[in-house]
Amino acid sequence: MSAIKRIEVDEYWADSTIIEAGNYVFIGYCMGNEGQTIEKQIEGAFSVLADRLSKIGLGLDSVVKMDCLFKDIRDLQYLPAIIKQYFKNQYPTRKAFTTDFIREGIAFQIDAIAYKG
Description:
Elements: E1 5-10, E2 15-21, E3 24-30, H1 38-54, E4 63-70, H2 79-87, E5 93-98, E6 108-115
Parallel strand pairs: 4-5
Antiparallel strand pairs: 1-2, 2-3, 3-6, 4-6
């Protein structure tokens, strides 16, 4: 079994935002453009996800699963069009649900699993 690599470790929150385990990569807490429109926040989250994947030599096409967290589930209507822009017909499986975020300006976050084969 290969070693588990913890990347972007946050000592304050006691978590890792990128973990490589075998052929899989787990990416957490992707959010951006806090306080802006939901569309900008979704785009910001995908940009953070792409940036984190690039640190280990992967792109968005490697994402196989996403959890999409919304402050307001009615904002789900904006997600498909933005996914189409970023994933170019290489869509991951996904689920969406609502949550209360730690800061007021956050309306969207992604956690993802990527395949590194």
